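Could you help me review a protein record that somebody else here produced? Do not assume that whoever made the record got everything right. The record follows directly below this note.
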Amino acid sequence: MSARAVVLLSGGLDSATALAIARAEGYACHALSFEYGQRHARELDSARRLAAALGAEEHLVLRLDLRAIGGSALTAEIDVPKGRSPATIAHGIPVTYVPARNTIFLSHALAWAEVLGARDLFIGVNVLDASGYPDCRPEFIRAFERLANLATRAGVEGDGHFRIHAPLIELSKAAIIRRGAELQVDHGLTWSCYAPERDGRACGLCDACLLRKKGFAEAGLRDPLPYAA
């Protein structure tokens, strides 16, 4: 019987590739997504399709109201930045940062993993194209893994050791896209845009769109998503 793993699945390029990697490594994958009040809830449709296409054992969508907290252009009435230069994107923490989001998501993934008897959690963070998000850094992943083994019955009673896998953490967006292609991820099912157009197209100008388009160009592959710009 394959070992179980909980995989955070947003519906984007990175999480889809992380799920494909976990499956390729032989894990029985339980995909976890969040409807947290994000303005780009369109990504959840992608997550559902990806979970099915990539062979997840099950796909759980938890509902959290992070709009009640706000503080981010993704969860409050704050404009999503558009048309920023690569140098600007790489500097500082942008307003699209959702306070403590990966800590919140990993905490829920940890709880579900403990119930499932899983000891492996996968998250598709990467530090090179992370737009400055502090919860995409290797030191955060290491710290959360220590917490996981201190704050759970499984960790305390010694019947398992939790491992947080971040297989993309030191890869560029281009390398992630190439890795996904190697693992037959259908990039047409993924979604990256923070500010979708009303007609369903990606805006093409937010940081996520710009990083995605740059990644496909550098990977030498065609991006199958339609863009407004």
Observations:
- The domain at 4-219 is CATH 3.40.50.620 (Rossmann fold).
- Residues 110 and 148 are 7 Å apart (CA to CA).
- The first strand starts at residue 4 and ends at 8.
